[in-house]
Structures are given as C-alpha cells and as structure tokens.
From TrEMBL:
Zn(2+) binds at residues 130, 133, 155, 158. Belongs to the class-I aminoacyl-tRNA synthetase family. MetG type 2A subfamily. It is an enzyme of class 6 (ligase). This is Methionine--tRNA ligase. Is required not only for elongation of protein synthesis but also for the initiation of all mRNA translation through initiator tRNA(fMet) aminoacylation. GO terms for biological process: methionyl-tRNA aminoacylation.
C-alpha cells in the first residue's frame, strides 16, 4: 500500500462520443491543482486522466458517422481530448485509454480472477437501459417523455428514451458487499466527500444491493470476457478498472504497490459507480479500496447540468482564448465552493478577472516590481532591522498563516478555501502598500531605510504569493518568478513552506500578468 508521502489522484475517464465542454475541463483543472499542490509539498505524486472508449454509446456514434469505433475514438482523442489538457494547462502524468492493450489484458485478468473466486455467475436480466448513462435504470429513475418522445419512458438525466433489454449475462455478486461497504463508510467518514454525497451513498446501500450485470452479448465493441468470447465486458466494469491497470495492476506489483490506492475525483453524476460498485469490485479481488471518492458539483446552464447531449456545452477554448488558461482555472476553482453546483456566466467571469486577477493580484505584483525598479534600480532591498515596524511583522505572520491554512485546506480537498486563504495575503499586501505609501517615502531621503524595509516586505509577500498560487496560476506565477529574480522555478518551491522561499538579488521588468480584456458581445 502506498504511504502518506505519496498521492495518486484520478479524474473520470471521459466518453469520446463528443468533444469536451467546460464541465470536463473543470474536473481536469481541479485534479491538476490538487496534484500540483501535493507535488510541491514534496509528495510522490501521480495524476491520471484518460478516455472511456467502449460500449454502445461510442459504437452508435461511430456508426452514425460512418467510421469504426476505433477510428472514431482515435480521432476524438487526438483532436479533442488530449488537446483539452493543453488548453487548460493540465500537467497529468499519464493518459489511459480503455482501448490500450495494457488496459484490456488486465481487465481480463481481473475478471478471470473474480470468476475463479466464485464472484461471477450466469443469469438473466430484463430491464430498461439508458445508452447515455450506459446503465440499467430503476423505474423510479425514469419519467414520461414529451414532444417527440411522447408515450415513451425517458431517462431523467438524458431526456432520451430508454430501451427494454432482455439478456443472458454474467453477473457480479455485488449484493454480498453491502455490509462491508456500510462498515467502510462508517469507519472512514471521509471515504465519500462531501457530506451530502456520503449521505446519499449510505442511504442507497442501506436499501440493499442487487447483483450487477457485467457483460453484454448483443454487440462486440468491448473487452472480451476471457472464458466466453461471445460476451464483452460491461463498459462501466471495464472503465473503472482503468484506475489500477494504469499503475501496474496485473503486471508490475512494485509499481502498483507504490501508487495504489488513489483519491478519485468525479462529478456527482457518477458517484455511485465510484463509491459503491468500484470498492465492491476491489473487495472481491482482495485489493485495497480507494483513498477516497470526492464528488464535485455540476456546472449549470439555466439551472440544468451542462451537457453534451443537451447541446448546452461551452467549449473551454471559448474562455481561454479571451481570458487565458490561468483565469479559467482560477475562476472555476475560486467562484464555486468545491462540492457544490455552480452557474457559469460571462459577466461574473469578466468581473472577477478584472477585480481579483487584474486589480487584486496582477496589479500588486506589477507595482511592487516597478517600485523596486524605480527606487532601488532593480536591486532587491535588504532592509535593516532598525527600520522594521510591527506592520512588516504582521505581513510576515500573514504569509505563514496563509501558507498553513491553504495547505490544510488542500489536505481536505477544499480548493476554494485554499484560494481564499491565499487571497487574505493579497488583500493584506494591497492594504499594506496603501498604508505605507512607498512613493511618499521615496520623496524623502531621510526615510530611505524605511522605504527599503517596506519594499523588502512587499517583495517577500509577493514571492510567497507566487509560490502559493503556482498550482492555480502556473503561467502567471512563472512570469512573476522570473521578474522576482528568484532561484530555480516556482514549481520547485515547497508550497507547504511557501513563506520560506529563497529570495533573489535583482528584479526584472514584468508585463501585466492579466491584461485588460476588451468587452465583446
Ligand atoms: O461518465 N459540470 O464520462 P462522461 C461538472 N465515462 N462536471 C461535469 C459536467 C458538468 N456540467 N458534465 C460533465 C463518464 N462533467 C464515464 C466515466 S470513470 C471510470 C467513467 C464531468 O464523459 C464530471 O467529472 O460522461 C463528470 O463526472 C464527468 O464529466 C462525466 O464524463
């Protein structure tokens, strides 16, 4: 089992039936910020993301487009899903596709193991299947269709008709794990987060679990069931296994032991798959359950979940082309309490960009660098002890407090709290400069020592901010780091000791970090 000094975080692997929208990018940047933060705190970190390429949904999309499912998946991965990572500046360590050989052969290994251990049997099932969800639905999850679907039952999530299927399939004895799962939620209250997600999962499992149909035989786009090639593995059973096949399950025990278990980050729509089915699968295989499952909220459009199928998706590049990837990352992670739903609006984004990034942080950094340039010829001041005041001490204290509070928030996966804790330092430094008036001190030669102490304090505070904000704003903080003349890269600084960063000797000019954005339609 991986130890406390390692951190393995995953995103869901996304369906390649369509291109990504900002909801997918939101999960990516949240996972990336947690990974970067942990990496900078010295943990042996691994971030995994990827694509989910089997199943009927992909097969049908490919067929409708006149290509094979493999061709379709290859095209979307190359043209849309991998480029998304650059668009929003994600530094993932690996990208897994469920059509990778390393995945397919170990899905078969896992399945064979469960079969040999008696956890899989043959059965028959009749039920309503939603291809959008790739899931059999309970009657309670269906609603009456309207408009073109009048008279049909539709999935409450996708608003598309479900299909009545009757199949002879292989089943996983999931019902045997209800008590063990309840014990897991009880003994590890943080296993499912946030609290609302945990409550939902606990009450779901308390109602009892059915066994799970884990194969399909009416189409062949999937991983073959190893002992019966007329069946393919159910797409969710296949997909969940990516989290272990990507880190050596079945073929590299050392690597697997070093990485597994993972902290999973998912949207709340797929919480049950991760917090119920997945740990039951792992328990059956005798493997460790995940570190935890965090179900974040939805980005809403008009009060409804933004979705590909409802054509309400906004492309991430629409935002990054105007505001940049840093602003994308900052906006979604600071404006929405992590775990809650949030609505996106261009007005809110533009207002926060201007007030918080351009005026709050960017302007602070520019002013401090510019004043050191103007008053000290770019030489980083080293103020004398005698010239220091309580106001300077207060800034140093706030740097330490912000560093600690942000790291503690990240340990609890509360990204918005970590940003808010950091922003206390932004506000404190802006207030400090307004009060200390370095431009007035500069006019009086007798106040030279005090001017240097003020600029030294401000310089130090801005450097601490660069370190603390580097996971969220990697591009802006890298530029700032260069302007501060600080050694190595900002990413190499320990973030859990951000306030102890090693200062440089000379600053250099800094272009505006968040240039003015002209209002357009
Ligand atoms: O479910 N707001 O893939 P998927 C926030 N392949 N996040 C959103 C969102 C929104 N409006 N819409 C989508 C699948 N997401 C499976 C997963 S994992 C083993 C298999 C994000 O392409 C969110 O992370 O439908 C959600 O859980 C995920 O995209 C669903 O992506």
């Amino acid at each position: 089992m991986a130890d406390a000094s390692s951190f393995y975080i995953t995103t869901p692997i996304f369906y390649v039936n369509d291109v990504p929208h900002i909801g997918h990018a939101y999960t990516e940047v949240a996972a990336d910020v947690l990974a970067r933060w942990n990496r900078q705190a010295g943990r042996d970190t691994w971030m995994l993301t990827g694509t989910d390429e089997h199943g009927q949904k992909i097969l049908r999309t490919a067929t409708a487009n006149g290509v094979s499912p493999q061709e379709w998946a290859d095209k979307l991965v190359a043209e849309a899903w991998k480029p998304l990572l650059d668009t929003v500046d994600v530094a993932n360590d690996d990208f897994i596709r469920t059509t990778d050989e390393r995945h397919e052969r170990n899905v078969q290994k896992f399945l064979q193991h469960l079969f040999d251990e008696g956890w899989i049997y043959t059965g028959e099932y009749e039920g309503y299947y939603c291809v959008g969800c790739e899931e059999y639905k309970q009657q309670s999850e269906l609603v009456d269709g309207t408009g073109e679907y009048e008279g049909q039952l539709v999935c409450a999530i996708h608003s598309k008709p479900v299909e009545l299927l009757h199949e002879k399939n292989y089943f996983f004895r999931m019902s045997a794990f209800a008590d063990k799962l309840l014990e897991l939620y009880e003994t590890r209250p943080d296993f499912v987060q946030p609290e609302s997600a945990r409550n939902e999962v606990v009450s779901f499992v308390r109602r009892g679990l059915d066994d799970l149909s884990i194969s399909r035989s009416t189409f062949d786009w999937g991983v073959k069931v190893p002992w019966d090639e007329t069946h393919v593995v159910y797409v969710w059973f296949d997909a969940l296994l990516n989290y272990i096949t990507a880190v050596g399950y079945g073929e590299d025990d050392e690597r697997f032991a070093r990485r597994w278990p993972a902290q999973h980050l998912v949207g709340k729509d797929i919480l049950r798959f991760h917090a119920v089915i997945w740990p039951a699968m792992l328990m059956a295989a005798g493997l460790d359950v995940p570190t935890g499952v965090f179900g974040h909220g939805w980005l809403l459009v008009g009060g409804e979940k933004m979705s590909k199928s409802k054509l309400t998706g906004i492309a991430p590049s629409q935002i990054t082309e105007t505001f940049g990837s840093d602003a994308f990352r900052y906006y979604f992670l600071s404006a929405i309490s992590f775990g809650q739903d949030g609505s996106f609006s261009w007005e809110d984004l533009a207002a926060r960009y201007q007030a918080e990034l351009a005026n709050g942080f960017g302007n602070l950094a520019s002013r401090v660098i510019a004043m050191i340039g103007r008053y000290c010829g770019g030489e980083v001041p080293t103020g004398t002890e005698a010239a220091r005041t309580e106001a300077d001490e207060a800034i140093r204290r706030i740097e330490a407090e912000a560093t600690d509070a942000a790291w503690q928030a990240i340990e609890r996966l509360q990204i918005h709290e970590a940003i808010a804790a950091t922003w206390k330092l932004v506000d404190a430094l802006n207030g400090y400069i307004t009060e200390q008036e370095p431009w007035a001190l500069a006019k009086d030669e007798t106040k030279r020592a005090r001017l240097e102490a003020v600029l030294e304090t401000a310089y130090h505070g801005v450097g601490t901010l660069a370190v603390l904000l580097s996971p969220v704003l990697p591009k802006a903080t890298a530029k700032l780091w260069t302007a501060l003349g600080a050694p190595r890269t900002v990413q190499e600084q320990r973030i859990d000791r951000a306030h102890e960063w090693s200062v440089g000797t000379r600053t250099s000019a800094l272009e505006p970090l968040f240039p003015r954005v002209e209002a357009t339609e």
